[in-house]
Design a protein that fits this description.
Layout (H helix, E strand, L loop, with lengths): L19 E11 L7 E6 L20 E4 L9 H5 L5 E4 L8 E4 L9 H5 L5 E4 L1 E4 H9 L2 H7 L2 E5 L7 H13 L3 E6 L5 H7 L5 E5 L5 H8 L4 H12 L4 E7 L7 H12 L7 E5 L5 H6 L14 H12 L5 E2 L1
Parallel strand pairs: 2-8, 8-9, 9-10, 10-11, 11-12, 12-13
Antiparallel strand pairs: 1-2, 1-7, 3-6, 4-5
Helix pairs in contact: 9-11
């Protein structure tokens, strides 16, 4: 079911210049989020709950507490700052390392403990940023964009889940002559995509699972809107790069890959495809957010397996890029 946060029934209003959105990172000198050297703006909030998500902090559309226990120096400063009394402290001594434990049910994500932690073992992820603030960060690297053919990439999370904020940023980039990329799952209404697409130079479009039931199982949402929107963008002649995460035991079976190949080859304009090998380096983040990692024990595919997947998709005439 499409979530109400996407405002499926309403057109986008770009809002005032001071319009704000929820962002959890602005990464400079990115070289993996579109052509050239880019600034990647990570939107917070996503309607999908992919079990392999490597940015689990991007899911809730609100600031949240991230713990890094390995940095804790057992000073106990956070205990006194915690008004909900959600933190328990064990002092070091008598063979006990000492440290803190946080009751996630009592924690209200106020962030006061992060302000007193000298070791940065506690961090609030996500903050409101205005269009002006984001554009100031993007403009700092203009010289790199001009020399490399880069620009700004809006990713997440799901940027389409904050459509007015995204549209305002895209328009600001267009006014300044900056190349724009939107990295998206495609899970939104066509109304939203139709309003932003004139200001997007390239879509990085995720394609995860072709079977709707399995898509719901592993991402929490149906894939109908995703496939429909991809077909419409291809039909409109937009620049697209379809990115397929290759996840052992989830979507790397021959049936799913063949269905993906048939679907992509049958689009009005078959887009190039980039394969992304699954990795589990974000597993520690889940623990730090008080979440369980759904794919614990799944091993990344090796180079031979990635080559097999690429060859299978090339068999449908697709341009599969390394």
């Amino acid at each position: 079911m499409l979530t109400s946060t996407l405002r499926l029934d309403l057109p986008i209003s770009p809002g005032a210049p001071g319009l704000t959105g929820m962002v959890f990172d602005v990464r400079r000198y990115s070289i993996h989020d579109g052509p050239g050297i880019r600034t990647a703006v990570f939107f917070k909030g996503c309607p999908l709950s992919c079990q392999w998500c490597h940015n689990p902090e991007s899911r809730p559309a609100r600031p949240e507490l991230l713990l890094r226990p390995g940095r804790c120096i057992a000073c106990g400063a956070c205990v006194a700052a915690c008004q909900p009394d959600a933190i328990r402290f064990t002092p070091p001594g008598d063979g006990v390392e000492g440290g803190t434990t946080t009751d996630r049910e009592r924690c209200i994500d106020c962030g006061k403990c992060t302000l007193v932690c000298p070791a940065e073992a506690r961090e609030m992820v996500g903050r409101p940023m205005s269009v002006g603030e984001v554009m100031a960060a993007i403009e700092r690297d203009r010289a790199f964009y001009e020399g490399s053919g880069g620009g700004a990439t809006f990713t997440g999370g799901e940027p389409l889940a904050q459509p007015a904020f995204l549209l305002a940023l895209l328009r600001a980039c267009r006014e300044r002559g900056l190349h724009t990329v939107v990295d998206t799952s495609g899970f939104a209404s066509w109304t939203i995509l139709d309003e932003i697409r004139p200001f997007v130079d390239l879509f990085l479009y995720d394609l995860k699972l072709m079977d709707d039931a399995r898509h719901r199982e592993f991402t929490g949402v149906p894939n109908g809107p995703i496939l429909t929107n991809l077909r419409r963008l291809a039909g409109a002649g937009h620049a697209l790069l379809v990115r397929i995460p290759v996840i052992p035991g989830v979507n790397d079976d021959e049936e799913n890959l063949r269905q993906a190949g048939i679907f992509l080859a049958g689009l009005p304009q078959a887009p190039p495809v980039e394969l992304l090998a699954y990795h589990n380096i974000a597993e520690a983040k889940y623990a730090g957010l008080g979440q369980e990692y759904g794919l614990s024990g799944v091993r990344p595919p090796d180079a031979a397996r990635m080559s097999q997947v690429a060859d299978l998709l090339r068999g449908y005439g697709l341009d599969v890029r390394p």
